[in-house]
Design goal:
It is built from nine helices and no strands. The protein is mostly helical and 246 residues long. The longest helix is centred in the N-terminal third of the chain and has 32 residues, at 32-63.
């Protein structure tokens, strides 16, 4: 198989793994409150840990080559931008739809598009460099894309009772990685800089951490199921650590 095709296939597999998170909307769940609470908790713990243990350390490597103080300024500025973006999107979406659960699904969708585009670039470039490295990165990304798919599909389904809509929106999010790979090949392979990727990672981290703490956690708490919040967070931690350390 030629290197280009292999790289695009791996990027597509990594992205489409997000759809595995939609499986749960097709089951007849009896304890819906407990299920939603657990899903939200898994998603928020994955997003926070991926940001803190993966995206931000990677941004340090890319941005702190010259002056570490410059990185601190980048960190403060672009984390703040990520925070502000979530707040703006949150207000806009809530005005259109009254359901806070629906709002969380759409916010997760927008966040994960921003997250998955650079992941598609990463998978593509790694695969072009080495088959084995591309395969490992594809697997690691697929592992944490599943709970991210849950973060989109489950809230949207339980807010709208529409499986097709939940599946469609999750599918759109999953396309971000293969699109990122194709864009990289066609336009960006000679233009991607350490600085640009590093800044993107910080903004995405800010968005994911804010979404988790300001939106997902309060929504999970509404169900008054602390045991299920803890259970979901533990599952999310296990998934995150496996995907990071691979």
């Amino acid at each position: 198989m030629n290197n280009l095709l292999y790289s695009i296939i791996l990027s597509s597999i990594a992205g489409l793994s997000t759809l595995l998170g939609t499986i749960f909307i097709f089951f007849n769940i009896k304890k819906k409150d407990e299920f939603i609470c657990t899903c939200l908790s898994i998603s928020l713990s994955v997003m926070v840990l991926i940001s803190i243990l993966d995206l931000l350390p990677e941004s340090i490597k890319l941005l702190s080559n010259n002056y570490f103080t410059s990185y601190i300024l980048y960190l403060i500025l672009f984390l703040t931008i990520g925070f502000v973006l979530v707040k703006i999107f949150s207000k806009i979406i809530l005005k259109e739809k009254g359901s806070s659960l629906y709002k969380i699904g759409i916010l997760s969708f927008l966040t994960l598009i921003l997250h998955n585009l650079p992941e598609g670039i990463l998978t593509f470039m790694s695969s072009m460099h080495s088959y084995n490295l591309g395969l490992k990165i594809c697997f690691a990304i697929a592992m944490h894309n599943i709970p991210e798919g849950i973060a989109i599909a489950v809230p949207i389904y339980y807010a709208t009772k529409n499986k097709i809509k939940a599946l469609y929106i999750t599918f759109l999010s999953s396309l971000a990685e293969p699109i990122g790979a194709i864009i990289t090949y066609l336009f960006l392979k000679d233009m991607i800089t350490d600085k640009g990727v590093g800044i993107t990672l910080i903004i995405v981290s800010g968005i994911m951490i804010t979404l988790s703490i300001e939106e997902l956690l309060p929504e999970a708490k509404k169900y008054n199921k602390e045991r299920y919040i803890i259970k979901g967070i533990i599952i999310g931690i296990v998934i995150s650590l496996i995907s990071i350390f691979i």
